[in-house]
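Milestone 3.1: sequence recovery, worked example.
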């Protein structure tokens, strides 16, 4: 009986048609199917975002307060060390709002890139056991970073209302455009780094150094005016402005930092020409980079389970 049952079972397995659990990947095809695959697993993506947020505040009495602690401490340090001791606040009106605006948008970029880089290795158990579109792991870090960003934005808006005033006007449109562009760019960078990190584990250490350099290469704790005064609009300034993070930070500052629009004389701030157009161009470039990153990710993901 047992042999007969085994033969029946083997015959049944043999007659069962193969089902595709992944898709053939080519460099110029497969993007649509990858997006559809991620969309089909959107509920799982939401669960991963919730899991990441719960794990971050597990056994914590203060919970979400910790998402505000680091940027607030950074704000106090930079405000005192750079604003008061080095005197940057003398020529920068509403220096606290200026710094916190830059730290808020920078935190979004930094958290997406650093979190996405280690996301595949951090979910190695799931990668090895079941088939899932592996893109959902770095995308879950994007969701967590956006949640923290929204919390910090609430604090920033309250600070603007309390210690300055809200800059109503068309420049406000630069804020959502800056955020969307930076999220797309950060997702593109994080997606490809998450795949590379599986094969080259030193990638996450390189990312830490790169983020440190990129922080000081962006006008977060110093205004763009200082750069403009030194470079006078030459090709080095244009190269400086070619950094998507720089453009996103400046876009947020022009949208939310009213003091930078009202200064006169020594406190008058400089802004890049056609900032809105620069943001739109950067968004287009970032979308292309996101597509290229997904294609590179698709080519590299085949051996994730073996490498992990």
């Amino acid at each position: 009986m047992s042999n007969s049952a085994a033969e029946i079972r083997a015959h049944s397995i043999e007659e069962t048609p193969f089902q595709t659990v992944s898709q053939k990947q080519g460099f110029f095809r497969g993007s649509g199917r990858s997006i559809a695959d991620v969309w089909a697993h959107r509920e799982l993506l939401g669960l991963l975002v919730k899991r990441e947020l719960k794990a971050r505040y597990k056994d914590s009495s203060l919970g979400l307060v910790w998402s505000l602690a680091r940027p607030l401490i950074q704000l106090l340090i930079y405000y005192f060390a750079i604003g008061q001791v080095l005197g940057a606040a003398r020529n920068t009106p509403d220096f606290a709002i200026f710094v916190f605006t830059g730290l808020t948008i920078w935190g979004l970029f930094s958290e997406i890139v650093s979190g996405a880089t280690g996301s595949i290795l951090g979910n190695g158990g799931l990668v090895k056991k079941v088939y899932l579109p592996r893109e959902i792991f770095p995308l879950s870090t994007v969701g967590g970073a956006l949640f923290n960003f929204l919390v910090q934005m609430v604090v920033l808006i309250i600070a603007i209302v309390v210690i300055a005033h809200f800059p109503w006007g068309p420049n406000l449109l630069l804020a959502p455009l800056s955020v969307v562009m930076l999220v797309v760019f950060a997702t593109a960078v994080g997606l490809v780094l998450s795949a590379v990190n599986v094969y080259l584990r030193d990638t996450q250490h390189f990312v830490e150094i790169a983020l440190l350099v990129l922080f000081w290469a962006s006008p977060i704790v110093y205004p763009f005016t200082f750069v403009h005064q030194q470079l006078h609009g030459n090709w080095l300034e244009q190269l400086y402005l070619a950094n998507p993070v720089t453009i996103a930070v400046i876009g947020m500052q022009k949208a939310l930092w009213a003091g930078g629009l009202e200064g006169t004389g020594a406190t008058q701030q400089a802004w890049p020409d056609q900032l809105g157009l620069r943001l739109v161009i950067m968004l287009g470039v970032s979308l292309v980079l996101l597509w290229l990153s997904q294609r590179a990710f698709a080519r590299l993901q085949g051996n994730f389970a073996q490498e992990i």
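Residues 136-163 form the longest helix (28 residues). Confidence is low (pLDDT under 50) at residues 18-23.
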